[in-house]
Design brief:
Elements lengths: L1 E5 L14 H25 L2 H29 L19 H28 L8 H26 L3 H30 L3 H29 L9 H9 L4 E13 L2 E10 L5 H16 L3 E8 L11
Parallel strand pairs: 3-4
Antiparallel strand pairs: 1-4, 2-3
Helix pairs in contact: 1-2, 1-4, 2-3, 2-5, 2-6, 3-5, 3-6, 4-5, 5-6
């Protein structure tokens, strides 16, 4: 029996999110500074819509800080270590921290959205004293900050679930700021005090399904489920159709972090089959057809026994 490992297109040394560390840091700085402005104004104007937007901006700050921390720790424990460096025991590095950060972001989003929904419902029908002009000015400034932040993060969101989580929070904040602007204008022009609570409620409801989607994707990776876009039956059939392969079993495919899919599988081959040729074919198939750049392939002769004794 022999085992081989394919390492073509091996994951980037620090993960997809690390390429956007500078952008995350820039957005974190912008968001943190404006958060202070928004909280002070929300308390001064008694605006629930503005306070809900500030609460969501707080989750942005915490989420971005989590994302950056995860990227930094993942880099310190990268799989590829310098020659002679001590093995820390993290055989897959700490890339998964980026997914944990995105899951925490989803939980923060749920918490803020839930609070806003409950508080908005409580306020509907009351006539709170809300000061519209400062509320409008700060909301416009907040929208501008969020637009800049989203444009900075948009490219990285396509590559990293961690960065996508941060971008999603900024996008939700953008919508929140727009809602606050509309509520402030309605209050100024028509004197509709209920607009503040109604738009606060709308912002909270808008956030919830997006938080659910982010949390679900993150949890799927944490549970080591196969990527949704990969058909395991198709992978097994394709590997089984390779020359000399007579059986495929113990196939596992999972995602380590964004852009890092990995697999392990046992390939049973006829006794006279060239194992090296099977390894090469299987490696190339996984890379070119399924974009799985890191795979552990165990090639077993058909007369080998004992592999099926594993109890789980």
């Amino acid at each position: 029996m022999s085992a081989g490992h394919s390492h073509d297109h091996v994951h980037v040394s620090l993960g997809a999110g690390a390429r956007h560390r500078g952008r995350l840091a820039l957005v974190l700085g912008l968001t943190a500074v404006f958060l202070v402005v928004e909280v002070v104004t929300a308390l001064a104007t008694n605006s629930l819509a503005l306070l809900s937007d500030a609460g969501h901006m707080l989750t942005d700050v915490l989420g971005l800080a989590l994302a950056l921390t995860a990227i930094e720790l993942a880099g310190r424990h990268a799989v590829r270590r310098p020659e002679g460096a001590r093995n820390t025991g993290h055989t897959y590095g700490l890339y998964r921290l980026e997914i944990i950060a995105s899951f925490c972001n989803a939980l923060l989003l749920f918490g803020v959205a839930g609070y806003v929904v409950v508080e908005s419902i409580r306020r509907i029908g009351s006539t709170p004293d809300v000061t519209a002009t400062p509320m409008l000015v700060v909301a416009v400034a907040g929208l501008a900050v969020n637009v800049v932040a989203y444009l900075v993060l948009r490219e990285g969101a396509r590559e990293s679930l961690n960065v996508e989580g941060a971008a999603l929070e900024v996008l939700a904040d953008m919508v929140g700021s727009a809602g606050v602007i509309v509520a402030a204008l309605l209050l100024m022009v028509f004197g509709w005090t209920w607009a503040d609570a109604v738009f606060g409620l709308a912002i909270g409801v808008w956030i919830l399904p997006r938080a659910w989607r982010l949390g679900g994707r993150s949890l799927r990776i944490l549970l080591q489920a196969a990527p949704a876009e990969i058909d395991l039956d198709a992978v097994s059939n394709d590997l089984g159709s390779l020359d000399g392969v007579v059986d495929v079993h113990d196939l596992h495919v999972w995602t380590l972090t964004s852009g890092m899919d990995t697999a392990s599988v046992h390939l049973v081959v006829a006794a006279s089959t060239d194992h090296h040729a099977v390894l090469d074919q299987a490696r190339d198939l996984l890379v070119t057809r399924y974009e799985i750049g890191h795979a552990t392939l165990q090639v077993e002769p058909s007369d080998h026994r004992g592999c099926d004794e594993i109890g789980w």
